[in-house]
Amino acid sequence: MGFVIDLSFGFRHSTLGLIPVAGNKNTSALRVDGRRPADLRPVQIIRGYTKFAPGSVLIRAGDTAVICTASVTEEVPEWMAGRGRGWVTAEYDMLPASTAQRRARSRKGADGRATEIQRLIGRTLRSVMDFEALGERTIWLDCDVLQADGGTRTTAITGAYVALCDAVAWLQTQGLLTRSPVREPVAAVSVGKVDGRLLLDLNYAEDSRAEVDFNVAMTGSGQYVEVQGSAEAGTFSHAELERMLRLARTGIRQLIGIQTLALGRRAKRKG
Question: d(Cα 85, Cα 111) in Å, to the nearest integer?
Fold first, then answer.
């Protein structure tokens, strides 16, 4: 039997005691979806979304939806065998109808974009793992985009962390782990410069015309795992970079709060 937690958070949800980044509160400064510049999209996390995976999550960030599953195999890559250490790796793909125009299925493995993203997901989740505590086994994180409206890679990272924690909890209930190898939480968010304004958590309409676009992954202790960014059209100043990183840090702290709340809630049995 599966378990489900359905947590829906609006971008002005206050029960987590969040401190918003100061922004222009005039309605003329609102974004196309009604958010202020420093607002996240509404986040929904459903745990236990599939029947067979030890960890599975459907995560929504606005209109972006990603299924993240965590599966366990009692082996490691050949180059790690015999070291008594585990491994975490990830795969990422998008369903054909996840975008407005159908994407053809890849018959030759992951394309360049998917390879880059799954490597990002894998190394981000590995950054918070104690591989000796995991033991000589692999946790596979599969992230499949059901609907893409910007931020699929950052949403996948945030959801994959919850799925990973559920898989670890399953290993503990099976008596295969004596302690959790997850050292701390990790999440990710996008930030960018659109029409001269610095915005948190870009949707596709914003991302597609951003002058500057960053993806930031950070741990619960405030350590950066990844800062990916470039100027798509124009440039950005050092002061703008610092402001974008502050926006990202605030957004990631909110996402980690949502992850923690989701994992802390008693799951309801399906059916």
Answer: 30
